[in-house]
Write a structure and sequence with these properties.
Elements lengths: L5 E6 L3 H7 L6 E5 L9 H14 L6 E5 L8 H12 L5 E4 L5 H18 L7 E6 L2 H5 L1 H5 L5 E6 L1 H8 L19 H13 L3 E4 L8 H14 L3 E4 L5 H7 L4 H18 L9 E3 L2 E3 L1 H18 L1
Parallel strand pairs: 1-2, 1-8, 2-3, 3-4, 4-5, 5-6, 6-7, 7-8
Antiparallel strand pairs: 9-10
């Protein structure tokens, strides 16, 4: 799948932010039609996004659009206009506030019809779903299996915090009065569901855009768990986000050494050994799998 270390949120109502997004060094951009766009300008924002996609010129290799959720009156028209108008330049749709598999299937069916009517390649446009409340988390495994279009599960911390009644206004940040990681359970649950179904797992935003240190802590924690990337809301967060989700060069080089040494050792000519020592550490098949994962992630970035 495409690299998604940093996913930039861009309000579809802002020409200025759309223009700025063209030059930023992020892996993905999502044009927002949901929370960042007021109801009065939803319709004109669709046209603005279609025009931006048609014009192109974005440095980011992945371009997506977050439509409004099924609980609103706008989802259908979002899909019709965006996919019908610029589907050939669109990599995925982001479905917010996903609560069950039926919502994903409904989007899949609608996109399939729009693709056919627009003469687009069937099935090429992916779906990314946001898990944003207790119901969605409870059903996350079924959601992750709902459609072959699915490419990622995305944690939505703001709505999730509201859903649970968490006592903080700092979206994406840890609770000052809670001594442990308040998001560990939800992040791990989403991650396990994503990996069980071959999907990427993306952490949500950290809204204190000037607190780069806090953002970095949040990004590094998600990366340590195994997340593929994180949403960014401001250019100040991009460098830290890209760094957090890129394997360290020394880890990448060590993973290559482990893979090469193990391949040689397990061969008949190398003694057909199932366990070896590399850098004073015992390596067996489990260690090779960890190294392979780091190597795969590094290859997508380093080439």
């Amino acid at each position: 799948m495409a690299v998604r270390r940093t996913v930039l949120a861009v309000p579809g109502s802002s020409d200025r932010f759309i223009a700025k997004a063209r030059e930023l060094d992020v892996d993905a951009v999502f044009f927002d039609l949901e929370d960042a766009v007021a109801p009065a300008v939803k319709a004109e924002s669709r046209a603005r996004i279609v025009n931006a996609l048609d014009q192109g010129g974005f440095k980011a290799p992945v371009l997506t659009v977050r439509v409004n959720g099924w609980e609103t009156p706008w989802t259908y028209q979002d899909v019709i206009e965006v996919v019908g108008g610029a589907g050939a330049r669109l990599d995925a749709l982001v479905l917010p506030k996903t609560q069950d598999a039926a919502q994903v299937k409904a989007l899949d069916y609608l996109v399939t019809q729009v693709e056919a009517n627009a003469g687009l390649e069937p099935g090429r446009i992916g779906i990314e779903v946001q898990i944003e409340d207790a119901t969605g988390l409870t059903n996350v495994n079924e959601i992750a299996a709902a459609s072959p279009r699915l490419v990622s599960l995305v944690f939505g911390p703001g709505d999730f915090m509201a859903s649970l009644g968490m006592s903080s206004l700092n979206v994406g940040a840890q609770m000052a009065d809670y001594p442990a990681d308040a998001f560990h359970h939800v992040l791990m649950t989403i991650l396990v569901a994503a990996r069980a179904h071959g999907l990427q797992a993306i952490d949500g935003p950290y809204v204190a855009i000037r607190d780069v240190e806090g953002f970095t802590r949040s990004a590094k924690a998600a990366a340590a768990l195994g997340y593929d990337g994180k949403w960014v809301l401001h250019p100040a967060q991009i460098e830290a986000g890209n760094a957090a989700f890129t394997p360290k060069p020394e880890d990448y080089e060590r993973a290559k050494r482990i893979m090469a040494a193990y391949s040689q050792a397990t061969d008949i000519t190398g003694g057909a050994r199932g366990a070896i020592v590399v850098d004073d550490e015992m390596i067996d098949e489990a260690g090779v799998k960890v190294s392979a994962a780091i190597l795969a992630r590094g290859q997508r970035v380093y080439g």
